[in-house]
Amino acid sequence: MASASWPPQLKDWVAKCLGQMTDSNRKEAQDELRQVIADAFAAHTLWTTDWNGVQLESLLPKPAPTLKRKINDTAPVSKKAKKSSLKQITAGTASLDLNDQAALNRRAERFQREHEIERQKSRNSSLKANVHNNHLFNNSSWNASRSASPFGNSDEPEADPNVIDWDRFTIVGTSREIFKDYLRLTDAPKPETIRPYAVLQETLVQLKKRWREKCSYDWICNQFKSLRQDLTVQRIKNDFTVQVYEIHARMALESNDMVEYNSCQATLKTLYELGIPGKVEEFTGYRILMLLHGRNRSELNLYVGQLTPRQKADPAVRHSLDVQRSLSMGNYHALFLLYLNAPNMGAYIMDHFIPRERVKALMVITKAYRTISLSFIQNELGFDDLDSTIKFLEEHKGAHFTNPTSSNSQKIVECKSAATYLGQVYEEKYRKVGIRGAV
Predict the structure, then answer these.
(1) Less Cβ crowding at N or C end of the chain, within 10 Å?
(2) How many C-beta atoms surround the C-beta of residue 266 within 10 A?
(3) Which residues contact 410 (CB under 8 A, 6 or more apart)?
(4) How far apart are CA 168 and CA 38, in angstroms?
(5) Which residues are bridge partners to 371 per DSSP?
(6) SS (HEC) of 422-433
(7) What CA–CA distance (Å, rounded) separates 394 from 388?
């Protein structure tokens, strides 16, 4: 199971254990930590265990070694006794020195026994490693995105000893339902409620079909969140995962659901950084427009500075960079031409900051002219028609006309009166930016 679905108390306990590990006990402690969590997961007690009261034996303080006198040590011998003993040894037929053959044989036997013990320990360690690797392989073979052998590669760097191998706890779904409502997980996910990879692929096909048939966005969003959840708990990260998030992001844009769009965009950024292919340039353009909406200049400059020449040459990215340039220069004429000709779904994002830029443009226009025709404002600021132009002016206290009784096509805006209120409205409505779903 993924660590994201753990109870908070378990996460805190794991962090505490990792902090107590040292170079001398790290391997033993990590093995014990894995086993404790695996046992709790198998017994379904992850959420019921009082983890604050669990103590790893490998992290307990080791008792100080005590010095003992060797059994064969004897009491001090007097000089007189030494002389008597020396006479007896000299009179014997063999000398008890380092060349004594019996002593050498005893030493050889002792070292042979120690060597055999060490070889047995080595064989046991190898056997445990093989069992663990086979278990890991069986639990990881479901993931279509993995290309490396579960047994590792001699050319790869060694694994970080501080990172636990959570692949052991990944589940594989067994549900055959095409559609399934989204429910927030409050416990460990169960395989019978999770759809496997092949079923999820069919689910996406059916959801796209339903969307073309104009089904409810609330229902389609619920289904996509359930689809994303099944991918997450099974740790599936590949081009199919990217496709799911890209499609849901576009649907969210079309339905003005910026909460789900920002959630999808954040995940896509992570997946793209892993090297998984997708519509990278399209969503790069969207990300630039979102940063322009939030007026996050520092992050925008950092993000744009990391783009490659190939990315900047893409039409979607180039369009977003042109929008950035027109905003920085105050060129509202170029900005609204870009708005009317935005590629992909960029106009849906621009819809969120175009009203702000229209007010700023009107503040400039009403200061530069004494009067201006309503039709000029419609064409210059990219309104669909004269009625929507008047409605916008009324909502922003700028509907001041020299001839209010004339037809819309003949109305003339009195700029001085309009300018007085436009600046006030701009401060009230647009000085601060609120982005729904932003993190």
Answers:
(1) C
(2) 14
(3) 403
(4) 8
(5) 414
(6) HHHHHHHHCCCC
(7) 10
Candidate from 29-38, 166-175, 242-251 with smallest mean pLDDT: 166-175
Q: Which pLDDT score, from 0 to 100, does residue 135 have?
A: 41
Average pLDDT over residues 43-56: 80
Rounded to whole angstroms, how far apart are CA atoms 405 and 42? 79
Mean pLDDT on 247-267: 94
- Joined together, the tokens standing for residue 412 give 């003339």
Inform me whether the pLDDT recorded for 178 exceeds 70. Answer: yes
Beta bridge partners of 373: 412
DSSP code of 67? Answer: P
Q: Tell whether the model's pLDDT for residue 423 goes beyond 70.
A: yes
Which of these, 349, 193, 136, lies nearest to 256 by C-alpha position?
A: 349
pLDDT of 297-332, one tens digit each?
889 999 999 999 999 999 999 999 999 999 999 999
Q: Could you read off the pLDDT of 165-175 as tens digits, one per residue?
A: 545 557 888 89
Identify the H or E element spanning 203: helix 197-212
Q: Which of 173, 305, 279 is nearest to 226 (CA)?
A: 173
Exposed/middle/buried for residue 379 (C-beta within 10 Å: 0-12, 13-18, 19+): exposed
Two structure tokens written together for 430: 């647009």
Please choose, from the candidates 140, 145, 142, the residue with its C-alpha nearest in 3D space to the C-alpha of residue 275.
145
| Helix, coil or strand: residue 414 | strand
DSSP H helices, 331-401, are 332-340, 346-350, 354-368, 374-380, 386-395
Q: What is the DSSP letter of 160?
A: P
Cα three-residue angle 122-127-130, rounded to 5 degrees: 125
**Nearest residue to 10 via CA among 31, 42, 36:** 36
Whole-angstrom distance, CA of residue 341 vs CA of residue 329 = 19
Helices (H) and strands (E) in the chain, counts: 18, 2
- In the prediction, which pLDDT does 143 show? 40
What is the tens place of the pLDDT at every residue in 94-110?
444 444 555 555 555 55
For residue 166, give every residue at least 6 positions away whose Cβ sits within 8 Å of its Cβ, in sequence order, or none: 1, 2, 3
Average pLDDT value over all residues in the chain: 79
Looking at the DSSP bridge assignments, the partners of residue 414 are 371
Decide: residue 181, CB within 10 A, 0-12 exposed, 13-18 middle, 19+ buried: exposed
CA distance linking residue 173 with residue 196, whole number of Å? 5
Query: Positive or negative CA dihedral for 241, 244, 247, 249?
Result: negative
Q: Are strands 371-373 and 412-414 parallel, antiparallel or unpaired?
A: antiparallel
Instruction: Report whether pLDDT(71) > 80.
Output: no
